[in-house]
Amino acid sequence: MACSDLREELDCSICLEIYTDPITLRCGHNFCRICIEDYFLRTQEKTGVYSCPECREEFQDRSDMRKNKTLYNIAQHFLSIPDQEETGIYCTYCDTPVPAVKTCLQCETSMCDDHLRKHNKSVQHALIPPTRSTRDGKRSIHKKILACSRTEDSSCICESCKLGGEHRGHQVESPDEASEKDKLKIILEKLSARREETEERVQKLQERRREVQEKAASVTERATDLFREIRRQLEDLEKRVMTAIANKELQTLRSFSKLIQQLEVQKEKLSSKMNHIEEMCNNTDPMTILQEPNRQEVLEDTLEDIEAREEKRIHDGDLGENQIFDTLTTGLSDIISVVRQKICALRDSDIKLDINTAGNRVVISGDLKTVSWSEENQGRAETAERFEYYQVLSTRRWSSGQHHWEVETSDPVRWRLGLCYPSTTRKGGQSLFGNNATSWCLRWCDNKLTAMYNGKVTHLPYRISHRKIRIHLDYEAGQISFFEPCDPIRHLHTFTTTFTEPLHAGFCVWTGWVRVLS
Known about the structure:
Elements (H helix, E strand, L loop, with lengths): L2 H7 L12 E3 L5 E3 H11 L6 E2 L6 E2 L6 E2 L1 H12 L3 H4 L14 E3 L4 E3 L1 H10 L4 E2 L17 E5 L5 E3 H5 L8 E2 L1 H108 L3 H5 L4 H17 L9 H28 L4 E2 L7 E3 L5 E4 L17 E8 L3 E8 L4 E7 L18 E7 L2 E6 L2 E5 L7 E7 L4 E6 L5 E7 L6 E9 L1 E4 L2
Antiparallel strand pairs: 1-2, 1-5, 3-4, 6-7, 6-8, 9-10, 9-11, 12-15, 13-14, 14-25, 15-24, 16-21, 16-25, 17-18, 17-24, 18-19, 19-20, 21-22, 22-23
């Protein structure tokens, strides 16, 4: 097959260029991956039914697309072959037209790779790039092959010029030597380019190292402030509890002291009455006892005092431990709640993108904060967690609590922002956020704002003017809310459901970029 015929077979019918990352549909037709994906997104995304641009065969699942490795290798090999039809120089020794790679000035012949290897084993002649005629390789005066070149001006001379007086004393070098120098120059250029690349990598690594140091210092400062706040609250709680114990102790001791004083007075009264009764008992004259005017009253008073003492409530020494420990428990719970909120706030402020989930048509920035659409395939390894399309998830996920963050977008841009379960599909049209039952998103496309869940589209009567979106998650309430942080803040939409899995933040772009701010 002629090269032109082969060239036509390697053209994509959409872009009319040689295949780039070719894929094969179920019907057998081939297209560039980016061409067919753009075709589907532009013309058939909303219908959910896809058809081949050539034969119109329909299919439901876009996962039927497979990379055509053989066609890819043929296209790459074709691109690497020099365009021989422009020179038309073929090997002198081959019976069939085989492109020549070198022309020998001494032999005045052109050779392919096979004959060049045999030629090099036999003699060492001057070789140049393929040329139709070797006339340019001969000295016009002596009609001899140019065998040397002057170092001063790189002009070519023959052996007669070299031996004659015209160039006697000039420093000359053979074509082989000149060719070796050319090779060295090429190597030097490559090494220089690699050194520049290495320097750039060193600079980037140094920048990343500084970023890590700055981040570590920032995290250390925030953690120190958090521990300082925890210690302050614990000290306040300790003071409250200790003060409550001391107050309860003082109150109880006062009760005991008062009761002791009352009992001492009672004891004195009882002692006095006991002495009087003993005197009466020691009196030998019965008539004296009988004649005692208050005898019955003394006995009755004594009994009343004893009853009064028995009825007096004796304090049991209770310090109110239950109330004190309730205060302690409540205080600790309040501290834990505050600490959790502060930790969530610290963690939410450091949302990073998970490059392991990023599709090969998006670029992730070095700080893992920005996702950008790219025409070039990034060549990341195909894994089960990697998205087929222009999407990426956050490294963080939430299974409780309230969380919020803001994102900034470029202009113009088409994006989908929201949350999804870890179990969401990664391949096919159903993997796009909002097209399935495991993701919820806000979509901005063609200057129109919509909310999407499980393929259902809700059109919203708003236009994004500030290029910023705030997302709020209340896991227990089952709510995902979107706001535009303008003045005053504007509520855009709220999804309400019951979450059954943890949630990741999801970002989808197919023009422009989206950056996580906080």
